[in-house]
Write a structure and sequence with these properties.
The protein has 8 helices and 8 strands, in the order βαβααβαβααβββαβα. The chain has about 180 residues and is an alpha/beta fold.
Length: about 180
C-alpha cells in the first residue's frame, strides 16, 4: 500500500528514552503510540517538549480495546517500532499477551504481517540507565528478563535490538526496504 507509515510505540521506560525521542525527531511519516506508563514517564523525565517537537500524531492508551490497532487492519503501517520497551512489555510480547495498547499493537502487527523492531531495555546482566533528573543508575536485569528478550528475538518478523546504534541502523535499513 502506498503512503504507509511507521508506527512507533513507547513504553514506560526512561532507558534511552531521550535518544529514542531524538531519533523520532529525524523521521517523517510516523505515528507515535504511548502506553499509559509512557505518558507518565515522559512527563516525569521532563521530555514532553521533545515529544511534542517530533511533530508526529500521538495516540495514547485510553481505551479498553486499544482502538488504534484497527489502523493495522487498514494497512496503514509498514513497520512497528517499540522503543524503549520495558521488561514488563517484553514479557507480555514474549508470551502473547494483548492487554494494553502496545501489546495489542505488537499482536496485530504480527497478525497482519507487519515487521516489528523492538528495543529491549534489559538485555545484559548489568546496565546503566537514566533515571529522572538525569541521574544514572546501575540496573541488574533478572534472568527471567533476559530469557524473555531471547524468547522474543526468536519470533518471526521481529528484530530485537539492544542499543541505540542498532535501533537506528535497523530503522534506516527497514525504511530503505520500503521505499
Amino acid at each position: 500500500m502506498q503512503n504507509q507509515r511507521l508506527a512507533w510505540a513507547i513504553t514506560g521506560s526512561g532507558h534511552y528514552l531521550r535518544e529514542a525521542l531524538q531519533i523520532l525527531q529525524t523521521l517523517e511519516n510516523t505515528d507515535i503510540f504511548l502506553s499509559r506508563a509512557a505518558a507518565e514517564i515522559i512527563k516525569q523525565y521532563g521530555f514532553q517538549m521533545q515529544l511534542d517537537a517530533t511533530g508526529h500524531k500521538i495516540y495514547q492508551d485510553k481505551t479498553a480495546s486499544s482502538v488504534p490497532v484497527e489502523l493495522f487492519y487498514e494497512g496503514k503501517y509498514h513497520t512497528l517500532v517499540i522503543a524503549p520497551a520495558t521488561s514488563n512489555t517484553i514479557a507480555k510480547l514474549a508470551y502473547g499477551f494483548s492487554d494494553s495498547l502496545v501489546s495489542n499493537l505488537f499482536a496485530q502487527a504480527g497478525k497482519t504481517r507487519v515487521p516489528s523492531i523492538v528495543f529491549a531495555c534489559d538485555t545484559a546482566p548489568e546496565l546503566e540507565s537514566e533515571a529522572p533528573r538525569n541521574n544514572l543508575v546501575k540496573v541488574f536485569p533478572r534472568k527471567i528478563d533476559l530469557d524473555n528478550v531471547e524468547k522474543l528475538a526468536s519470533f518471526e518478523a521481529t528484530q530485537v535490538v539492544a542499543s541505540i546504534e542498532t535501533l537506528t541502523y535497523a530503522i534506516h535499513t527497514r525504511l530503505n526496504q520500503v521505499k
